[in-house]
Amino acid sequence: MHTQGPFPVFISHSHHDVATAIEVKQQLSLIMCTGFLAHDDIHVSAEWHETILLALSTRWFFVSLWSQAYLASSWCMQEAGIAAANYNIVEIPLSIDGTMPQAFSSKKQARKVVHRQPELLDLMPGLMGDESSSLDYKPEYGLIDYVTSTNSFRSAESRMALLEHFYYRLSANYIYQLADGIIRNDQIHLADECVRKHIPLFIQTCGSHLGASQHGKLQDLLRRGK
Description:
This protein is α/β, with parallel strands linked by helices. It has helices spanning about 20-30, 40, 50-55, 70, 75-85, 120-130, 140-150, 155-160, 170-185, 185-190, 190-205, 210-225; strands at about 5-10, 35, 60-65, 90-95, 110. The protein has a five-stranded parallel beta sheet, with helices on both faces. Helix 1 (about 20-30) links the parallel strand 1 (about 5-10) and strand 2.
């Protein structure tokens, strides 16, 4: 499935951890993912449990913010249980105080978030999947747009780093779009770390999917950038 999004994401959190949940939502918005937060997205007059169940049934990704407060919340544990039982939902557990997923959610290893400050990099393994994943929907459009719209060398380096371990997960049309973006944006192809590391790795991983013209232009840019 190839879609431009927006990609719906349910953010499960204790009300004690709302600041971290808001930051997750903001990070997701950078790549055209829409995060659902109960305290933000449920109207006062709405039935909470019905709205939450509907949100869970229409979300593709489930980000859970594991903490001692999360474990103590019956709402959070119920949400986590529903997500774990739904094979159409991709679980993305994050540990914000060292607490690890429990019960049915324990099948997924949580990524530890430093100082309760989640970054897009923390969400990438769940959003893009790995070699054992059958995930056929990924926020590729938003990611490629975010990476190729950079307007500084430092930003180019940090954004290309997001894709470092996931080039092989990109669909052929998005490989083409990323290559085109690198060629067109001199903030990427002139950035030192991109020239030394990110672009060569991209070519090495995805070169077989590139046309002769794109491949040649990328190699030429690397020669000029060194």
